[in-house]
């Protein structure tokens, strides 16, 4: 899928094994491969527990083994470092960044104000805007504001907000760059330890770095930026970078894969610009409406009627071939880190006194 013709495993161009086509009786049919040769905007959706993150991991395994691409995962739940664990088959080259940092110049002046919840028209916001425009590091921005002739109350407010950003620990002059992210291995950027604002800043930095690097021909491989829980990043400064890739990423060869359980919470652009949609089960009326609003004319029946009912089952809307297919997603070859714990799996020593873990009363 994604190539304007049926993608075969033995094609010269890179392709990834996603699973198998599913027959009407539920049985598995021919292998289903996704095009990895050209840029794509892909949307993976599904309610909790039906496999959207699992499917994202399957795609990441395929990309890590393909030539000419640079897969990067923004991981807000901390479930993808398992890609670096031993695989059942061919090894999956993976690198995990568990302390991600970006440069201050990643964010433009407007994004700095949005990140710090400052109006550009306010005294403090105007100072931050000017500092972000003139300086390249957080410390230089701070020094510029302190050395300005603005009223003291505005200077103190601006510096306090920059100190807050500094406390997140994500800004560094030697932060991640496109060369580091543009390797052939899948790079897992673990942002699970960050709050919403710094998490969005990191994703903005990654998206901007990969896009600019391809526009300037600074990296040879074609980046694939994969975002789990994508709705989280359409409510902060990360949104601008994602929409840039969605609307302008094809020309420089930058792909974007968004996985979310809430398609109604991502922008309309994310749904309408996706040329590949992979849908697990959905039941929320708002989420169904969001997908059906962009339902292609070549789809003869409603989306709700075609949605699967079991985990691991999907329907695939492929705009390149203008077709809709039912499919089963293959098993991952690296461990899946997204399973929820069960109380039935907890082992308890029944012979241990019930108050053994209680602290002594002093």
Automatic annotation (TrEMBL):
InterPro entries: AAA+_ATPase, HerA-like, P-loop_NTPase
Bias (Basic and acidic residues) ranges: 351-362
Chain spans, region Disordered: 1-30, 325-362
Record keywords: ATP-binding, Nucleotide-binding
Gene Ontology MF term list: ATP binding
Domain of life: Archaea
Protein name: ATP-binding protein
Organism, scientific name: Halosimplex pelagicum
